[in-house]
Structure formats: C-alpha cells, structure tokens
Backbone:
C-alpha cells in the first residue's frame, strides 16, 4: 500500500514539476560555475572527513573507558548515536566525492581538482570499512560478524536481539519506500529535462528504470519465497 502511495505522490509531484518546468527554459550553462561548485564540494568533503576522523578517535577513547553499570547504558547510547552519525557522514562524503569527481572529469577541471575529488571519495570509502569494523570492538563479548565476512548482513541480523532487528528492519523498509518514490520522481524529471532541453536522457532513464525494477523484484520475490 505504501508503495502505491509513494507512486501516486511521485506522479503528482512530477506532474507539478513538469507543468512548471515546461513554462520556463532550461539553458543554464553549468560549466561557467563548475570550478566554484567543485571547490565548494571538495571543501565540504574535507570538513566531513575531518569530522569522521575526530569521531573515530572519540569513539575509540570512549569504548576503552571503565564505567559503572549505570554509566555503561549511557555510553552504549552515545556510541550507537555517534556510530550512526559517523556512518552518515562517511556515506555523504563518498557521494560528494563521486559527484565532484564526475563534475571535474566531465567539465575538464584542473588536474589537481580531479585528484582531490577522487582522493576524497577513496579515503571516505576506506573509512567506511574502518567505521563498520569498529562495532566489533565496542562489543567484544558479542558474536558480531566482521564486515569482511561472507553474508555479513544475514549474520549481523542473527547476532542482533529482537529490538535491534526491529529498528534495523524498520529503517531499511522506510528507506526502501523512500527510494521507490525518489526513483519514480527522478524518472519524471529526466523525461521533463529531455523534453525541455532536447538533450536525450534515455540512457539515464533506462538505468534508473532497471534499478527501480531490480530493487522491487528482489524485495517481492524474497517475500514470496517466505510465504
């Protein structure tokens, strides 16, 4: 039912955006500001990488502290929230690095800017592996799998208690629904852009459509097997 609601919402928003966009002309020359945008993105990526590095140090120090039973619960909550915030910062940095790399390569930016963009994404990717592996150091008494193990997601669910599984699954389901709506809206925007500018976006439309179909097929086929 939620998928239908997201689809209707995406269609309505897409129609409004399409109607509005068709009344204006999209001819802005992005290349004129590509360098400034790339520099800004690289700076944001640097700030986020600094935040991630400091967060890792904080979590490492906190996890080594000897605390009382009452303080241990507060420490677990702090570590859990900090771990989530750090992971979000890492993912954001990776996305910014990829986007800035694409801008630098497509718009022929200076070589040093291309290197900085690619390097920021690479460092963030390496940090994501390091951050994910820290969870086993926070809880050495639990049989938590390593990120390098096969079927990591399945093993993590099995090692988690009922409450933790509920939180993870609810979050994943919400993300799945949001992704469906976002991809449908993306398809509509790509169609509008193709019509208004005359620049075909069929390749991107095909790719987004395949991703949308693949994600939903995997989800519903998995549910079908379990019924």
Residues:
């Amino acid at each position: 039912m939620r998928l239908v609601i997201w689809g209707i919402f995406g269609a309505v928003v897409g129609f409004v955006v399409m109607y509005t966009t068709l009344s204006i002309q999209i001819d802005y020359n992005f290349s004129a500001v590509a360098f400034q945008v790339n520099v800004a993105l690289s700076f944001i990526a640097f700030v986020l990488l600094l935040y991630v590095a400091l967060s890792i140090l904080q979590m490492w120090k906190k996890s080594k502290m000897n605390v009382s039973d009452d303080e241990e619960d507060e420490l677990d909550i702090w570590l859990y929230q900090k771990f989530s915030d750090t992971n979000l910062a890492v993912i954001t940095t990776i996305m910014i690095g990829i986007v800035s790399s694409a801008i630098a390569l497509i718009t022929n930016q200076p070589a040093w800017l291309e290197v900085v963009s690619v390097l920021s994404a690479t460092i963030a990717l390496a940090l994501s592996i390091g951050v994910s592996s820290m969870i086993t150091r926070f809880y050495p008494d639990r049989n938590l799998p390593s990120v390098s193990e096969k079927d990591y997601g399945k093993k993590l669910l099995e090692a988690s208690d009922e409450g933790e599984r509920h939180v993870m699954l609810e979050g994943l389901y919400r993300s799945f629904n949001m992704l469906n709506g976002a991809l449908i809206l993306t398809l509509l925007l790509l169609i509008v852009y193709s019509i208004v500018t005359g620049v075909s976006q069929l390749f991107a439309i095909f790719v987004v459509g395949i991703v949308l179909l693949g994600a939903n097929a995997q989800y519903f086929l998995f549910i079908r097997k379990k019924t």
In short: Residues 31 and 107 are 6 Å apart (CA to CA). The radius of gyration is 22 Å. Residues 1-5 have pLDDT under 50 and may be disordered. DSSP finds eight helices and no strands in the chain.
